[in-house]
Prior knowledge:
By secondary structure, the chain is an alpha+beta fold. The chain has helices at 81-86, 121-124, 160-166, 174-183, 192-213, and strands at residues 10-14, 20-27, 30-34, 51-53, 60-62, 70-75, 94-99, 134-135, 138-139, 184-186, 189-190. Helix content is 23%, strand content 21%.
Amino acid sequence: MHELDIHGAIHIILNEKKRPIVLLLAQHNNFRSYVPGTGALTVPADNRLKICFALRSNEPYPCPAGKAPTRQRAVGDPSHISYVINGTGRPFLSGKDIVFGSGAGARPVQYELKFLPDKDPLYVSWIPLGAKEKVLFFKSYYRKGPPGMDLNTWQELKKYSDIMQFWYLRDGSAEDARFMSSALRSFMDVDFKRVLERNGRRLYNDIADAERKGP
């Protein structure tokens, strides 16, 4: 749709022992949060969580296992998150990201950690950080480059502690799909309080369970 995202927003929340307890990933116009040690997201001995970037879209996902790539459902409007969760209610503006794990040929990326100023344009830019393409001869929102990483979807979810609670969802869960559809009635009509209370309670219960089990 537009020029490839130039950044992948990956947030790793650590406990006092510097062990990862929550992985928060920005995927298109929504986030997803995961508790390492629960579900399919394991914690390696070196504590380095394995994250893979989707082909062409450059969106981050937990690396899949197996010798074949996986196809992850994706939407442009976060109010259609039920389709991402379990495939129900597929909207017109949707697709699938192709994600390769190490067994399917993914290549490791070398990186270097650097701390940038809080006001760095990579975080706070309102202008597109990329080319402004057209659909035929017309300018289009859908073909603008991405803005800075801190420009999240809703003002009500500016704190990362709230974001990781709001987007704590279970893949394949019909219950979660129904709940999120009822709370996200449209892009401009969202029951933030109800989602934060319900999903946040389960997130912190799962963190506590994972902490009790240990590495």
